[in-house]
Amino acid sequence: MITGTPKPIEEILEMVDPYDRIVVAGCYGCVTVCRVGGEKEVQVLSSTLRLARETAGKKITIKEVCLERQCDPEYIEQMRSYVHDYQAVLSIACGAGIQFLAEKYTSTPLLPGINTGFLGVTERQGEWAERCQGCGDCVLHLTGGICPVTRCAKSLFHGPCGGSVQGHCEVGKDTPCGWQLIIDRLKALDQMDNYTRLKPYKGWNTSRDGGPRRIVREDMI
Amino acid sequence: MNREHSQQSGPTSPLSGAVMVIGGGISGMQSALDLANAGFKVYLVESSPAIGGKMAQLDKTFPTNDCSMCIVSPKLVEVGRHLNIELLTWSEVTGLTGEAGNFTATIKSHARYVDIGKCTGCGACELACPVTQISYFPQELPEGEKKKGSREKRTIRGPGSPLPQRLHPWTFEVAAEKCSKCGSCFRACLHGAIKWEKGGVAGVIADKCTGCGACFVACPEKFSAVTIADAPEIDRGLGAAIVARSEALKKEMAGRDERNCIRCGLCAMTCRKVMRIGALKMVAEGIEASLDTCQVCGACVSVCPVSFLAIDQVTNRTPQPLYNTFNEGLNLRHPVNILYPQAVPRVPVIDEASCVHLNTGACGICRSVCGPGAIDYGLKGGEREVRVGSVVFAPGFEVFDAKRRGEFGYGHYKNVVTSIEFERLLSASGPTSGTVQRPGDGRHPKKIAWIQCVGSRDHSCDRDYCSSVCCMYATKEAYIAREHDSAIEPTIFYIDMRSFGKNFDAYVERAKERNIRFVRAMVSRVFEDPQTGDLELRYVDGSGWRVTENFDMVVLSVGVQIAARTRELATTLGIELDRYGFAVSQDFTPLAASRPGIYVSGVINGPKDIPETVIEASGAALAASAGLAPARGTEVTVEALPAERVPEAGEELRIGVFVCHCGTNIASVVDVAAVAEYARSLPGVVYAGHPLYTCSQDSQESIRAIISEHRLNRLVVAACSPSTHEPLFMSTLRQAGINKYFFDMANIRDQCSWVHPNDPAMATEKSRRLVRMTVANASQAEPLAELEFDVNPGLLVIGGGVAGMTAAVEAARQGFTVSLIERQPTLGGQVQHLGRSWGGQDFSRYLLELKEQVESNERIRVFLNSEVVEHSGFVGAFSTDIMTPTGALRTIAHGAIIVATGAEEARPDLHGLGTADRVMTQTDFEARLLGGRDMVPGHVVMLQCAGSRATVQQASYSEPDTGTPCDTSATTAVTQAHLPYCSRVCCNQAVKNALHLKEINPTARIDILYRDMRTYGLGELHYQKARRLGINFIRFDPEENPPEIEVEDREIRVAVRDPSIGRKVSLAPDLLVLSTGMKPRDTEELASMLRVPRNSNGFFIEAHAKLRPVDLPSEGLFMAGTVHAPKDVSETIAQAQAAVARAAILLSKKNLRLSGVVSRVDPTHCAVCLTCVRACPYGVPFINAEHTAEINPALCQGCGICVAECPAKAITLGRYQDINLKAKIRSYAQAKPEAITVEESHDG
Q: Which pTM does this prediction carry?
């Protein structure tokens, strides 16, 4: 799931300051699940904005909407009938969704209401952690199901660096050393030979290093 | 099994289907509810005017700090409203004849002088009553003798001259035809407002009159020529008018601290004309009091609007203040008194000893102010006989009389209070409204000391037993005191910290973190500094030094004891008590009293805390009904209801609004007629009325008539608190054939008249707004259907130990079919490894008998070597798959579950346990003692808390049970060698085994190394005996003074510093016995299948730590025994009985009806995010096969947490939808009423 955190309300208020008619658009996808951009947040954010603007003596009209997904064109089309009646759209979907909206409604300014985080998991209610960087060349079968790209701060491929102390990463006490985790797991799985197996250098061209990526599935077109 | 036959005999059965419960505390209430809900008629007899008992007096409860009143008041209301509980308060049992199954009880009710049927509990009588003292009532004079004049007089003066005021004056007139022309009035008037000439008729000069009534008082009784022409409330009587004027003047004079007489004349008029005494007279300098004729009732002081009169000035007799016993005498009360604000029944009692009217015939103010006419001085007490099948005796306790421990100065030193008094000081409804103040001078104390074991563990005053609760309540009081005022520095002086219950140790640790100081010392004396009221405590500290320390306040942690009255009652009932007054019972029938058919619960059965009491109460209810099962349902009343009218589509709104006067409670501040008038103008309202008491019985009838006459389809009541009165109005609505959810309530009493008494206009305006909002909400109401379904009368019991087998046998006796599942090849559980019980009874024989009862009972099916593998369904209709030894699956359909999977003795890898022959656990040792004399050693060292109460700084230890399911840390903590908690039973077990060894080998030497001896309750007696027999108890501290233990092949060496002699002792025992505690069995999979939470130690979490200790959070699931927390065999049996009692409530019903207020998921919006699944405290939501969250309405408790949390707003809760709240908010904002249109514009 793509995670995110709400932007500070002060920052949002500054963004919407020039406008008095906006759309607040949520998304029923990932951001609903991680509690930053669903129907409820649309309503809470809109109410907060209305209250703040009314207090400041600058009333604002808000259209509240929550799209099924902001990353699919068909759902974005649902806004076409009214989007031009408003001066801006404040989206609380992930960065992909916001950009896609901006792409489709070129004459309407798009404002981001959240800071998009990472591809992660819900460790427990209210706590998310990063698990995948989308490097495009998965090696999890060799590393006990623990990703060295994501879990190691340096994305090393051949074991821990010198900064690994008692299972912690030198980045911070709260960060476990990814390689410690991998080695512990490999031992438990009796797969330590994977650790000693020499891996060829990783081609980062499938990752961000190759520039913006695109997937084309001929079989689906 | 003889009873089985009598069951067949049907209606001719001589069994009574009723039970008498004696005592209306938490124990009696729980028993009554469990019995009545399981189909038995209950007579609940309570000696005080209201139920609630001691729990109602407490401020908070340990270890959760829940407010005691908040958790007990729903029970009070439930008992009060229950159709099949007949409340007999202010009553006593005076006789009991007959035998089990068919008793006749004689119940004597005292005269209440208030008609319970008419009283609405408005409290106007108590507010009006001016009496505050127990009077010296004038003796009736022999005929012919004249009342003697007063000999002693005193003129009461203020610092200055009287300041006559013309505030709220009355108008006086002289009736010319009655005037005897005597001139008394002329002489009495201090303002020259009477014109009179000798031989002429007197007259009042209106513009000079200040309205003091001196003329009225002076006019001789036989002429009564001076009359009051104009005064508010005078039509109700002079007394009512005086009280009304006094209130008006008090409001006027508030905050002025006037110490001079304002010559309102109310005192003199009250004394002469209301009390018929005439001891007060207005004179030029002030008030002249006749000291010897005064009856010292206190009325004059009460009506005085300023701080001029005081009781000790008007008399030379010693005033006898009428103390409020509910507040432990910390403040005063009136003769007419409602026991406490939340009392049930909320009906006052008039005290015969102090009421002026009942003693002299004067006064009568309360009757004149009572709107519903409930006060009747002619009411008499009565006696009645009721036929009952059994009796539950739950008389409760009183606290030890602290005066008997003279060295602490209680009763002499004002700032020494008892713990129960301190509870009242902490309570928001107490005498100081929750401010911690010293009773001596009202100052805020800083240093407060608690002295433990006052009247407990004390042979000198015949209180040898431990009261079990004081260590925890003292910790709680200290904790809460600091929450009220963080400047308070509490110190608790104790002998042993007996925090032996579930999560208690963790609570004490939290208290220590909050700067509560614990000092292990017994305070020897308390001295008061007479000038400051401060207290000096002397004690000997841990290192043996004498210490003197000063405190601002001392709280004596008084123990519990059985009242003398209770002992008399026990004699009446014919049951045996021990020397301390506790009921004599057997270890394996812990709740049965010595006379068959009588069951005991609560403190009468030994000191205990609230959850244990609640367990016993349910258990006693079960035991009391077991023999009466065939008569179930024979004496109960079932409410008959008309068919519910289905509203037609688009039916017009016809709202009826009732605005309650509540006597004067609301109407004295809020203009109720104006509010009703306003309500009539609101959209949809077709009827608005303002009854005097909307909740009275006749009002319910008239509401029903109005509903049908005006064809109302919505009902709104603007009155008091919905939490107490909503069910009443809802049932009235339902009786009128309308869906009960077409109701809403505005609380204009608590939120308007009570909080804004000085601003009637705004209070009225606020009432209008609240009514407007409520009407708006009612217009959005939807009918909710209450789900009804059949109940399967089968019970599934998981676990075949003592708890499970007891539960199975008891349930079978109640007539239910039982499936008993045991994982092992034999029944018996942990008790198979134990020797004998406290009372010396043999466990193996008991187990044998129990097994025999289980196996021979036709209603019980036993599945050995079997485990639960799948579980589904909901309360009343569960389905569970079990794996039998053949590997086959078997599906059992049942209505309820009792989890009794138990615990086992922990076997930590400590001191060579398991490898060295001469190191063993208490259980091993117990078995060895049964081996006879040859097996017993000469010298034994026992080590307590071996691997228990480990100082663990894990998060799991410091957090209380939060009820969070999916607790993954449970297993890891349990598999650790060290148990963080106290196992409760080990101290008692060590003492028991030590005594057993002494019995076999009197010369044996036994050293018990302990941290705190937790021989709670009557276990203390055995502990004392052990000390007397020369068993050594050596205290150690695992951090400061840990024992050094070396175990070798041939030798065990133990060295420890004995703090009582201040030296190190070296021991070389033959055996080292470890008290290792108990740990729950592995239930991780079971808990996850049943969807019930366990705490970090692996014990199941109860639905409510205090009041629902046998219920699991999910409906229809109960638990018994050590699966809940460590406990001994008697406690386990009681809990097994309790679990069956709780299950019987469900199983005895043919069908169940559930609340209509349940959450519903709209699948089209559900994001399947799991938020509701994680947020629900009852574990109800789940993701179904259609990939959407689903909430089973049968399991939903209607709390609304999922609704608030759902990020997609896909969940709604009937009655509390956005549409309802928005309607209320919009209506709030509207200045003028207008048609409410609600637009919902969420496209998405």
A: 0.83
